[in-house]
Specification:
about 475 residues; hydrolase; Leucine Aminopeptidase, subunit E, domain 1; manganese; aminopeptidase activity; single chain; elongated; Peptidase_M17_N_1; protease; nine-stranded mixed β-sheet; 2 domains; about 20% strand; 16 helices; Aminopeptidase; alpha/beta
Length: about 475
């Protein structure tokens, strides 16, 4: 699916006026008598999502008007203009004013994302109204962000029957091929030979054609080094600690971390950012068979730490641990992990916010400024040192599922930090799913945090 702006050379477009509630009457009174009369007669109100076409004497549209609501209503959501994209009929539109300059890029992106629909298995369509890129907006940048987000959504929305470890590898290879990146894969028994024991342990129960693997993609030869690590659990049954049916229903999205880092990688490479990018994805299926890893097992990770398995349904941190240890061996300038890791994070902040952990104050400052600017909200969570003892079971160095049920997202983050030792590191415990449709964000898979990271990278890495 191509989410792109309409060409200004493709023919005439309909002027689109964006008007908020505070200035609507003054704006209306400044229009032609015919337009004023039409707006009054139809009772148009400039609320978010409301739009109207104003015709000439022949009935052809001469302008479109989009409601932009109030600062209060805009603060309660994102992508206000995208609601207009969904309400306007098919056609080509050009903005002629009304949007603050600081909102142009984000609202233009929202318009493109409103065109997204997941149509692999049934006919579906998003908004059909096309927008000419507004003056002052970098079309290539916005289109790259839209394409990266669409990739993330497609990967998450695809069911595990068609998105297992092999298909996730195929997606990474296709992305690498498109941008001249190098992609290597360590698979099956080779994981043991090359010292990725926990990735192998989690995925070894799956069918042979869904064997566990570590995907390693590299791009760029100059500039600071950035390593992205994404959880690629393509389906999570819970293993021998089997999930109940209701908790298993959305587990196709348990590879949302890998989908998000691939979407972010797409943005970075499409924009040709001056950095050296590495993407590591441990891709597994946490299945049940006679070869499943078991509660009570003790595994030895790549970096030599031993881990007691107290719940096989806490598998994501295990595969991430080996990948983080591997990525840290090169001492990159920044290492980020993204994962649909804990239900505790969702209980804490809900599905809209991207909780993240870091000790790097510079990263915090850059990320939170960027997140606000691009409407990709994040929320910092604490690496709370007193909880370290909760992940130390005594019989092994670490516990993958501390008892008690408290601070589940924090203890998972502390666990992961042990494998990114002495690194500039941040971890994102994302949800990867939009449960309620909203402008530019249909129900289903969704990227979280990627655009905020993208916007923060120039400051974080001094690009």
């Amino acid at each position: 699916m191509s989410l792109t702006f309409a060409s200004a050379q493709s023919g005439p477009s309909i002027p689109l006026h964006v008007v908020d509630s505070d200035r609507f009457e003054a704006w209306r009174d400044a229009q032609t008598q015919a337009a004023r009369t039409y707006l009054i007669a139809t009772g148009f109100k400039p609320t978010i999502g409301k739009s109207i076409l104003i015709p000439d004497a022949s009935g052809a549209p001469v302008m479109a008007v989009s409601g932009f609501g109030t600062p209060h209503t805009r603060a309660r959501g994102r992508f206000a203009l995208a609601a207009t994209a969904a309400s306007l009929p098919a056609g080509t539109y050009s903005l002629v004013g009304g949007l603050p300059a600081g909102d142009l890029e984000t609202e233009a992106l929202g318009w493109l994302l409103a065109q997204y629909a997941f149509d692999r298995y049934a006919k579906a369509s998003g908004a059909t109204a096309q927008l000419i890129c507004p003056p002052g907006v970098d079309a290539a940048k916005v289109e790259a962000m839209a394409a990266g987000e669409a990739l993330t959504r497609d990967l998450i929305n695809t069911p595990a029957s068609d998105m297992g470890p092999q298909e996730l590898e195929d997606a990474a290879r296709a992305l690498a091929l498109n941008y001249g990146a190098i992609c290597t894969v360590t698979k099956g028994a080779a994981l043991i030979e090359q010292n990725f024991p926990m990735i192998h342990a989690v995925g070894r129960a799956a069918a042979e054609h869904r064997a566990p693997r570590l995907i390693d993609m590299r791009w760029g030869s100059d500039g600071p080094t950035l390593t992205l690590v994404g959880k690629g659990v393509c389906f999570d049954t819970g293993g021998l600690n089997l999930k109940p049916g209701g908790s298993m229903a959305l587990m196709k999205k348990d590879m949302g971390g890998s989908a998000t880092v691939l979407g972010l990688a797409h943005m970075i490479m499409a924009l040709n950012l001056p950095l050296q990018l590495r993407v590591l994805i441990p891709a597994v299926e946490n299945a049940v068979s006679g070869d499943s890893f078991r509660p009570g097992d003790i595994l030895t990770a790549r970096n030599g730490l031993t881990v007691e398995i107290n719940n096989t349904d806490a598998e994501g941190r295990l595969v991430l641990a080996d990948a983080l240890a591997f990525g840290s061996e090169e001492n990159p300038d920044m290492i980020l992990s993204m994962a649909t890791l804990t239900g505790a994070a969702r209980v804490a902040v809900g599905p809209d916010l991207s909780p993240y952990y870091t000790d790097d104050i510079g990263f915090v400052s850059a990320l939170e400024t960027a997140a606000t600017a691009v409407s990709d909200p994040v929320w910092r969570m604490p690496f709370w040192e007193p909880y370290e003892k909760m992940i130390e079971p005594g019989i092994a160095d670490l516990d993958n599922a501390p008892a008690g049920g408290f601070a589940g997202s924090i203890t998972a983050a502390l666990f992961l930090r042990r494998f990114a030792k002495d690194q500039r590191y941040a971890h994102f415990d994302i949800y990867g799913w939009n449960p309620t449709p909203s402008p530019a964000r249909p129900k289903g898979g969704v990227g979280m945090g990627a655009r905020a990271i993208l916007a923060a990278l120039p400051e974080v890495l001094s690009l």
